[in-house]
């Protein structure tokens, strides 16, 4: 065990400097008392990737707004929504022990709220921009968490991921029913959903099949 001669404190783990006074430690390193929290380590990676993905989504939205001459209020609303989503999910990952389950359920709740909003208001903006936007953001965040946690994410949350894939196809159905005024976001949402499903089938096929069997056998 390493020791700080200045503070008189012993430390387990592979430390070089004292966390209290930054002096060099003496002695031999010993294994830490508590195992390393790999989920939290992966959570830190997920935060960095989510920040990057959110930035990319913001740039894409600004580019589409300029290219397609979208109304400024719509572009601004979507961008603010992306930022708020990132901050909320970041807070979940940082402070919630079982953050994966909370993140996945969060997007399902957002979709439910949007559905109620449309049923009450019959505003086509909800079906044209809000619902496809939520589906896209959810799929992007799922893709990031899937890449970071790989098979563990599928094994634990397969049903939620399959729900997100199904919901990602809903905007196409809304377009077919004539409930949208612009079908680009619906098409993009369906494309991303199918790509995400393909990724799960190719890279985590065994875990996915096992979880699907559990769902139908329960």
From TrEMBL:
Name the record gives this protein: Reverse gyrase
Record key words, sorted: Membrane, Transmembrane, Transmembrane helix
A Pfam family reported for this protein in Swiss-Prot or TrEMBL: DUF6320
Residue ranges crossing the lipid bilayer per the database entry: 44-68, 74-93, 102-120, 126-149, 161-179, 185-204
Top-level taxon: Bacteria
Keyword Protein biosynthesis: no
């Amino acid at each position: 065990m390493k020791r700080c001669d200045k503070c008189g404190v012993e430390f387990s783990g592979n430390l070089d400097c004292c966390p209290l006074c930054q002096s060099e430690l003496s002695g031999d390193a010993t294994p830490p008392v508590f195992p390393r929290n790999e989920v939290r380590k992966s959570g830190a990676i997920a935060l960095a990737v989510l920040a990057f993905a959110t930035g990319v989504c913001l740039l894409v939205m600004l580019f589409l707004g300029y290219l397609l001459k979208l109304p400024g209020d719509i572009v601004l609303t979507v961008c603010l929504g992306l930022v708020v989503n990132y901050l909320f999910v970041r807070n979940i990952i940082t402070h919630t022990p079982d953050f994966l389950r909370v993140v996945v359920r969060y997007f399902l709740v957002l979709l439910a709220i949007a559905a109620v909003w449309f049923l009450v208001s019959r505003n086509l903006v909800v079906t044209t921009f809000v619902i496809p936007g939520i589906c896209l953001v959810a799929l992007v965040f799922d893709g990031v968490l899937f890449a970071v946690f790989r098979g563990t994410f599928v094994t634990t949350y397969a049903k939620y991921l399959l729900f997100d894939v199904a919901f990602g196809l809903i905007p196409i159905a809304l377009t077919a029913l004539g409930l949208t005024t612009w079908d680009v976001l619906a098409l993009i949402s369906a494309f991303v959903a199918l790509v995400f499903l393909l990724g799960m089938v190719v890279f985590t096929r065994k875990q996915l099949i096992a979880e699907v069997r559990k769902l139908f056998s329960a």
